[in-house]
């Protein structure tokens, strides 16, 4: 699998590396790690994101962050997708190019011509690290920083239940390549916008507890986003504060968009929220999952989700 994936990279003339829409640290970090590596090899490479007008600014410390583009080249022969369970999440369709699909989501539908999917890995950054290591690639400091950012962000800086020995082993190796964990943590966690602070304040004042305080929910409307000045990227990780409540087993966030509702689910690990997400054509992991839904009111959707969770 890894050998075939690397062969496709070596044979490609023009490569596009795509991160999923409204990206997080895992999709960005793993994409940049490949970008730095392939550029160093002399490959023609472009970074793509369909929503590059709303990128999380906390990752702007990554070298060449401004080079992410929302326009695809007219012609290229290999699309590498990082941390996306489907082409829809990239805002793309199949075309006259080969697809190398690199991911760690069990909900990944294997849409690539070549699929490198490691469901037991805590992040796609770990999958990219293994791809590079298995093929004898020298990992530069820039690449190490991107990979460490990927792993750290998707594990909640090594707090979530998806971490294991491999995760720590790789993180340790990346530190030996020049990563400063404190600098990465500060860059990602200490650059919070005023809009996000306002949004968090709204959430903490308006969340609701259900089922003997075992479920916490918050609905963020378009009006709330406008009032706080927040973008969708500012909602990243705020749901974790609800999950951190001592009694809460599952936290739910409903985010209203122009023509759909984005649902984020977080659990303490006892309930597999990915199973609920997959019922709505979404996906994710046992402790973190999500999906988009149309043609339903937020109040009705929230009621249905709570009913499903109360039965588990």
Structure description:
By secondary structure, the protein is of the alpha/beta class. 38% of the residues lie in helices and 18% in strands. The chain folds into two domains: 2-189, inorganic pyrophosphatase (n-terminal core) (Alpha-Beta Complex); 194-310, Diaminopimelate Epimerase, Chain A, domain 1 (Roll). The chain contains eleven helices and eleven strands. The strands form two sheets. Strands 6-7-8-9-11-10 form a six-stranded mixed β-sheet. Helix 1 crosses helix 3 (124-134), helix 3 packs antiparallel against helix 4 and helix 4 crosses helix 6 (181-189). The longest helix is centred in the first third of the chain and has 16 residues, at 25-40. It is globular, with a radius of gyration of 19 Å. The two termini are 37 Å apart.
Quick overview:
The chain is α/β, with parallel strands linked by helices and 312 residues long.
Order of helices and strands: HEHEEEEHHHHHEEHHEEHEEH
User: What name does CATH use for the topology of the largest domain?
Assistant: inorganic pyrophosphatase (n-terminal core)
Helix content: 25-40%
* Strand proportion: 15-25%
Shape call: globular
Q: Label the CATH architecture of the largest domain.
A: Alpha-Beta Complex
Question: Please, how many domains?
Answer: 2
Multimeric status of the protein: single chain
CATH homologous superfamily designation of the largest domain = inorganic pyrophosphatase (n-terminal core)
Structural class designation: alpha/beta
Uncertain regions: pLDDT < 50 for 5+ in a row?
none
Strand order of the largest sheet: 6-7-8-9-11-10
How far is the N terminus from the C terminus? 37 Å
CATH class of the largest domain: Alpha Beta
Sheet of most strands: 6 strands, mixed
Q: What is the average of the pLDDT values?
A: 94
